[in-house]
Amino acid sequence: MSALVSSSLLRSCSYSLRSVVALRHRRTQKLWKTALLQWCRSLHVDSPPHIPSLTTSYVHGTSSASLLSMTVSQSLDYTVQRWPDREAVVFLEDGIRKTFHQFQQDVEKMAAGLLALGLKKGDRLGVWGPNSYEWILFQFASAKAGIILVSLNPAYQVKEVEFTLKRVQCRAVVCPTSFKTQLFCKMLQEICPEIDTAPTGMLKSPRLPDLRMVILTDSRQPGMLHTEDVMQAGESRHHKELMDRQSKLSFDEPINIQFTSGTTGSPKGATLSHHNIVNNAYFLGLRVGYDWRPQVRVCVPVPMYHAFGSVAGGMCMAVHGITLVFPSTGYNSQANLEAIQSEKCNFVFGTPTMYTDMLSHPDLHKYDMSSVEAGLMGGSPCPSEVVKKLRTDMNMKEIMLAYGTTENSPVTFMGFPQDNEELKTDTTGCIMPHTEAKVVDPNTGQIVPLGASGELLIRGSCVMLGYWDDPEKTSEVICKAGWYRTGDTASLNSLGYCRIEGRMKDMIIRGGENIYPAEIEQFLFAHPKVKEVQVVGVKDERLGEQVCACIRLKEGQTSTTEEIRAFCKGQIAHFKIPHYVVFVDSFPLTASGKIKKNILKEEMEKELNL
Q1: Distance (Å, rounded) from C-alpha 258 to C-alpha 270?
Q2: pLDDT in tens, 189-241
Q3: 17 — phi, psi (to 5°)?
Q4: Cα(301)–Cα(521) distance, rounded to whole angstroms?
Q5: Predicted confidence band at 1 (pLDDT cuts at 50, 70, 90)?
């Protein structure tokens, strides 16, 4: 069946579902809805493989749907034409609701305003702050004007923000005055004291020589613009220029720079094209079934400065016409539950930690979760216990795990709604369409036998253009044949599903045995007293390394090394049982919230006097 025919049938399926919802008899409505959903799924252009076909650790994701040849702005234009009156975004904390038509109007005004301020095609504009309407507005306004959006972590301190703004030569930066303990304005004034006296929009600073303007989202300060100033700056000639610029944009051009966390060395600017993020969003949406569900309302607690939020959230909104519901500016598990109930969200996004927080909320049972149908989980491996609890405690019948990296736009493997329990809990999903993956021996570069562990490499339309202005670092991770080295240890099964076993550098070699921390972490998480666990290798004179488990216990719980080791005995191989067990209150984190295992390893070796 061609993609065109499938698309037509899926649209009729969607209309039929809306008709079924109008039926008065509840039982009839439920039976028909179930039958139609099953029929729609059977027509899905991206269906899970059922017959084992791989014979070696190489897989190529095929699809009857072609790659899209649209820019970010064109994808939004197309969706606005289809669903002008459908809600695009809801920001509950700020009381903001925008239909696609209203959102498009704001985007065009903001884009014209950026041109009026003198920003040119290819200039970089940094957005620095938590989730807000302005964040997603500038995401699409900058794309419409051909300006490259630079996603800045709102947790950055002075040195970090100065480094990133200078690294990509940002011409403008958008931020709130402050948020919680983050004093954005004061930090920028510390770096550029000239802001206070410079004419608005004409900043010149020796420490940031390319920066010309600061745009505030929530107040007016000397030498800085307000978002409303930008919205009102565009004149008819700028709107005409905007239309002219649209026709000259290529989908292969860079449009977004996402900074990696920098767990090893300084952060690097992964540069993504329109083609990268439009297609990643398109095929992600087909995988989860946005095309056959009547209407999707997503609870989005994940941050927009991450690829999870900006691509799976913002870009999927533009490509698939879904509604994004933002519960709060900063992460708040109670606000998530309230949003699901009040906005009748049928989809939920989150990291394993976010889902764990919602599941452990003392008032979870008081909230109506009946609207929930599915959830998307990414960011790190998820314990199987959490997946099971989401079904029973949050009515989440379909849970799809996703794996990827910022450099891959980001998703490369992802589960299907129809996957069985084993695939949902033991893998990070199946290879995405138009994507290749292989698992190789890190020493020889040869593809390993099916099921064996090695380094995961990715090739395809998802791979970034490179690290901004850094050919040396780019060549370290992307070879001449186009393969991107993830640095992750993984294995593939015969259906093309992937199991992530940890980072290459995190692998523990104990007396010649290769041990993957993720496996032990998954096992220890099942202990009833364990809230969070990280496993690292620490020095050992005889064996080279020993296994050390760093455990955060649930509130009010106590435990001992002996209890943890006894829990492992007879359940995992003896050499995987932690030699050391250390109970901790917290873990060292990067600015984006990832655990710094190298620092944790050093701390443990010091504490254990190794």
Answers
A1: 5
A2: 999 999 999 998 899 999 999 999 999 999 999 999 999 999 999 999 999 99
A3: -65, -40
A4: 25
A5: very low
Q: Is the pLDDT of residue 409 over 90?
A: yes
Q: Which helix (H) or strand (E) holds 393?
A: helix 384-394
Pairwise CA distance, residues 602 & 610, whole Å: 10
Give me the sign of the Cα torsion angle 437, 443, 447, 449. negative
Structural contact between residues 415 and 46, judged by C-beta atoms closer than 8 angstroms: no
pLDDT band for position 376 (cuts 50, 70, 90): very high
Count the helix, strand and coil residues of the chain and give each as a percent rounded to the nearest 5.
35, 25, 40
One-letter amino acid identity for 142? Answer: S
Closest alpha carbon to 456 in 474, 435, 433: 435
Structure confidence by residue, pLDDT tens digits, 103-150: 999 999 999 999 999 999 999 999 999 999 999 999 999 999 999 999
Side-chain-side CA neighbours of 168 within 13 Å: the count stands at 34
**CA–CA distance, 145 with 124 (Å, rounded to integer):** 11
Q: Indicate if the pLDDT at residue 19 is higher than 80.
A: no
Pairing of strands 466-467, 96-99: unpaired
pLDDT tops 70 at residue 350: yes
Of the candidates 256, 359, 342, 355, the one whose C-alpha atom is nearest the C-alpha of residue 304 is 256
Whether the upstream peptide bond of residue 410 has omega within 30° of 0, thus cis, is yes
* Site of tokens 């989809």: 347
> How many Å apart are CA 529 and CA 531, to the nearest integer?
7
Residues with Cβ within 8 Å of 221's Cβ and at least 6 positions away in sequence, in order, are 177, 185
What is the C-alpha to C-alpha distance for residues 406 and 551, in angstroms, rounded to an integer? 28
CA distance 242 to 144: 8
Query: Does residue 263 surpass a pLDDT of 60?
Result: no
CA distances from 186 to 191, 230, 487, 495 (A): 9, 22, 37, 53
Report helix, strand or coil for 547.
strand
Per-residue pLDDT tens digits for 511-542? 777 787 888 998 899 999 999 999 999 998 78
CA distance 9 to 43: 8
Tell me: pLDDT of 36 over 70.
no
Q: Which two tokens stand for residue 92?
A: 């509950």
Distances (CA, A) of 463 to 152, 201, 217, 509: 21, 35, 33, 31
**What's at 467, amino acid-wise?**
Y
Half-sphere exposure of 341 (CA within 13 A, CB side): 13
456, 522, 451: which is closest to 489 by C-alpha? 456
